[in-house]
Structure formats: structure tokens, C-alpha cells
Design brief:
The complex is a heterodimer of chains A (282) and B (284). Chain A has 14 helices and no strands. By secondary structure, chain A is mainly alpha-helical. The chains are: A mainly alpha (282), B mainly beta (284).
Chain lengths: 282, 284
Amino acid sequence: MTNQEIIDWKIASLANNDSSELSEAMQSYLKRDKQLQEELLFIENFWTNDVKPLVMPSDKLDANFYQMLSRAQSAQQHNVQQEATQQKTENGVASQQPISFIDKVKHWFMPTPIAQFATLGLVFVLGFNLNQGPSSETNNQAYSGLQQEISSLTTVLAMSMLQKDSASERLSGVAYSRQTDLSNPLLVEQLIELLARDKSTSVRLAIINSLSELKSFGSSEQQLFTLASQEENLLVQIELCRLLLNFGSVDIKNQLTEQANQQLLKPEVREFIQAQLMASYI
Amino acid sequence: MKKTLTLPLTLVALLAGSMQVANAAEKSYSLPLSKPGEPVSIEIEVYRGSVTLVGYKGDTIEISAKTSTFAGKDKDLKKVKDKMNKNNSSRSTKGLKSVKSQSMRLEIEEKNNEVEITSEVSNQHIDLVIKVPQRSSVEVELYKGGDINIDGINGGLELESYEGMIIANNISGPIVAETARTDIVVNFSNFSKISPSSLTSHIGNVDITLAKKVAANVNVQTYQGEIFSGLDKDFVVVDEIKKNSKGKKQEIVLGGIMQAKVNGGGQELSLISYSGNLYIRKGK
């Protein structure tokens, strides 16, 4: 009996809207572990989007939960490998690709609404951020692998949140996108598409801020320049100009300066660009 | 935007309530919810008027609406009238009395606890006072006229006012609010950890008060305005660090955003204005 089995049961029962009870053995195990009880409560609250303010698990709890997930993953991979080896020996044929814990979780969450998916994403991110000290080389590799999985989960989470009706949830999506390295081109595409059409200035400004994390604008640079030169919202236009002046190519900076010189931009934006250019000479 | 719920259990309860109020200058209406005790979302769109929302412990939506014919100056409306006058020759009013319009057009719809209240008539000024369950999440869009006032609502708030102020008291958010040229004044009694909050006024001021227990990362950004803070924590510049591939240089840009971590920090609360001032006050 492990904590993971009980968490598996909890998530599966929430995902399937299943009210089946824990077995007696599980109940007795759960009774002895107060931390696990709190973790289950946290998951349930987040999942059901409870109207009461959510109480985040403590740092210690996060750390414990993350380590537990990591252990569960290792244990599961070990079990799956053992089973695969056993099957190979018994049948003499290659078994199916082992399904990782994360894949299993993705399978649960993919067809379900994002609030449910967010549960795990948040818990993973919380746990990961608070556990940066692996003690051995093996752990290091496991943590590194898990980090990639988290990045992939966070990307999916961000992309889903960006599609929400509520501006606050879209802001969450932008915040999640900042937790990835923006290496997923689909996520960047979605951010720029939202930047062009979102009705909330707050969301648009947050996206611009997030795009500063990009290693290179690549083919999006010209699109960002077009947005900057045609934008009607003053705050958005200024921040787009700041983004391109700080992180754009020399060519784009020149194009933007040219636009300012030819008085094609709003006076406030021209003033801002001139101030930025002056500052860069100092 | 109204969502279509697809869960089988909810299909049974697809009872849409709809009401149109006419020929009355003042009207009250009590709207029962399809699913008492469950989350409520309220979407309000008013062309001209004011919107006041008060959270209470009940489980119905109590709507009070008062209308008057718009008598002020409105360029858009004037243009329409001028055009109409050119096309229609004036008629004699000899022997006729002027009858003032007292009709009210207000549409209210409810479906599965999702409520939509709409008044889009341009020559009608409507003052709405609505009592809603405290847990409600609320979206309000007001184009012209007065202010948006919110009091004692714990759910998410999404507020947009083009001409009037946004005033919210005793809320916890998350809140995303935006005005064009008027102020946003928000008093947080608590602060939601669920999603970020953001208050943007293009040329108006943003004035917030944070209760002592509130933990948040408060971000401030104004281009031509000033920032006044009563917080114990100082605001520091948030630098942008461009991550480059290994071995290459890192680029650090001093950004325009400043941040204070209140009570150790927490969810993001951004205050933005182009030329307005930002006020951050410490509450009780």
C-alpha cells in the first residue's frame, strides 16, 4: 500500500465522478497519515473549484508530496519494467511500451475540463519548485526527467487556460506559460494570436511580458512589429515597442525607429521610443 | 458568453427563465436560481446607466431597475437624431400633448445558475441595483453613464467601464478591471490565491487598499503618473533576464514594472496606468 495508490484512487474517482469508497485497508492506511489526508483535501478543493478560499499545502507538505510522486514514478517504472521482462520471458515477444505514471495521468485528464487537469499541474509545479535539492546522480536524472514532464504538463495547462472565457483564467494561462521555456511553438503562436485579439488590456500586457522570455522571436518578429505599428491601445503599443527595442533584432529596431521618425506612431509612443533610444546610448 | 453544459445530469434542469420588462420606470424582480447552493455566474451588459452589485447570504438574484430617458449630450445619439430629422419633415404638434416615455427594456435570462442581464438601448439610462449570492462570479460591461459599484462578493470579478468609475469594496477577487479615463478604487478584505488579478486604467488613477492579512505580489507600472505606497515593503524594479543558450551572454533589462511582496508574497496583483497615479494603501 502506498500514498500513490490512494491518490490514484482519489483522482480517478473525481475524474469519473465515482463515489466508490476506499477499501478498509486503504481507509486504515489513510487514517494514519494526516498529511495524505490534507493532500487529498487539497486536490478535491482545487478540482471542484470550491468557493471557499483554497488553503495551499504547506511548504513541507509540498516537498513531501513531490518526493512521494517521484518515488511513485520510480516505483511504477520499476514495476512496469519487471512486468515487461517477465512477459518477455514468458511469451518470448516484446511487450507493449511501458506506460509511465505521467502518461497515465495525462490519459485521465486529457478529455476532461482544465480545472481538473490544473489540479495535478499545480501540485506538480508546487512540488517541483520547492524541491530543488536531489541528493544523488540517480535522483538527479529522475528529477530532470520529471522536470521535462512538468514543462510538458504546464504547456498543456497554459494552452488550455488561454482559451478560457474569464480574463483572470487567461492571466493564469499566461503565468503558466512563463513557467515553461516557451519552446513549444504552438504555445507561442497561441500567445501571439491572443495578444492580437484579446479584449482585456491586462491579458495583452501580461502576454507581452511573457514573450520577453523567448530566446528568439524568429518568424514571429515581423508579426509583432506589425502589431506594434498598427495597435490602437496606447499601453499595449508602448509595451510592444519596449519588447522589440529590448529584445528584437537590429533590423526590427531600425524599422521601429524609422516609424517613429516618420511620425507614423502616436506622439506618446514616439516619445517613449526616443526615451528608450536615449537610455540605450547612455 | 453563455456556456453550454453537456453533462447528462444538467440536461434535466435546462429551464431557461426570461423576462422583458416594459412600460415601467421602476421595477423589482426576484430571480430564483435553478441550482440553489451551487456556483453562480452573472454577466451584465449595460449601454448607459450604472450598476451596483451587493453580495448577500441569500440564494436568489434580487434585481431592482430604475430607468429614465437619457437627456444629456451624446454625440453618437445626436448624429442619429440629426440624420433622422433630415430625412423626415417636421409634423405639426398643434393640439397634442408630449407623452414622456416610461418604458423599460431590460432582458434577464437564467439557465443553470448562469444569469445574463442586458440593457442595450442607447436612449435609456438605467440604474441597476442587484443583490447576488456572495459566492457569485460577476462580469460587468458598462459603456456610458455612471459607475460600477461592487460590495461583498467573494467570487471572480471581471469589470469594464468606458466612462464611469469602478469601485469595489470588501472583495477578495480574482479581479480584472479596466477603465478608459476614470478611476478604479478597490478595497481588498482578502486576496484570492486562485488566479492573478489586474487593474488597468488608461488615464485614470488606480487606488487599492489591502487588508492586513493579504499576501500578494503587487506589481505597479505607470508611465507618466506617480506611485504612492503605504505598505511596509518597498517596491523594487523587476528585471527582465533574457535566457540565452549555454555559453552565450545573458541580457538583463531593467523593466518598467516594480514589485512589492506583501506578507511574503503570493498571487500577482498588477496595477497599471499610462498617466494616472497608483495608490497602494494598508487597511485594517
